[in-house]
Model the fold of this input.
Amino acid sequence: MGRFFAAYPLHVCDINGAMNTAPTRHALRGSLDALPLFIPALPFAFVFGVVVAEAGIPEWLGWSSSPIIFGGAIQVTLFTLIGEGASVAAAVSAALIVGARHMLYSVTLAPRFQNQPGWFRWVGAYVLIDQVFVLSQIKRIDDPVGFRRYFLSAGFTFWTLWMISTALGVVLGPAIPTEWGVQFAAPVLFVSLMMAASGRQDKLAAAAMAMGVTYLLASWPNRAGILIAVIVSVCVMLLATRKQST
Amino acid sequence: MIAAAIILTGIGSYAMRAFFIFALARYAFPPLLLRALEYVAPTVMAALVISMLTTPEGELAAGPPEIVGLVCAAFAARTTGNHIFALIAGMGTFWLIGAII
Done:
């Protein structure tokens, strides 16, 4: 009897723990995982500030693109082309082609969003950027609540840091010296993310193939080659793994 | 005009992110498509790395410091599984070889 009573509260704690603290842990994990990924975005925010200044756009208007667009490469492409005197239609369409890879993220995450509430589809899509996408692919959380907390926490940690750093970028301008080569941190981080996302040999082979195809198509305008390289390597890998299994 | 460009790009980029999440909300994904989607993350990351290292004219803008730095970063990522270690290994090698050459 004594053993039963002693065990009972422990059992309750365990269930409560699983229900209440696990999602909190996922939320904290999401924030912590997002932080190192922001390191290369910091010098990029200052590049963004320089692009806004060189395009002759008011600081507040340039910064407003951070909450409205929330995508560094898209924002920089838009203001670079406006600065070069391109028409609105040309600048917007080029910026959207640069961002076209987000459609791949939308397809890839669609199954994970199926067992989620409607509000999360609206809010989650807003923070669906490269880093948040790849984090959600590396950390496979099957529990819907855990997935949602992890995704939103990583996304809005990145969002907050991007709002602050682009504000600093437009105000301070070229505050980070470029001759140190700090921009190289971006490809270094994405190689690290690529390795983390390529846990299996076939995924690593797909990544290697995508590198080759992207290089062959590197002269295509507005990085359209990225989309083609992904589609080609995915199709080739499907064919290759199909042959192995039959 | 600039405000219109920002708002249009904002609507467009949100639509690209949201479109398939909403369009496929009730779609039963066939196993072949689910298998294909597993390759998206590694291949997009790989394509982004190369696009960062090439000029808009399609030429490779990376010398020995960059290439060796990336190989070291990939090795550090694979052995430690830690992005900060990979950043330190990649940037450290890049700066070291850059200083020697």
User: Anything to note?
Assistant: Chain B has a mean pLDDT of 95. Residues 2-23 of chain B form the longest helix (22 residues). The CA atoms of residues 32 and 38 of chain B lie 10 Å apart. The radius of gyration of chain B is 19 Å.
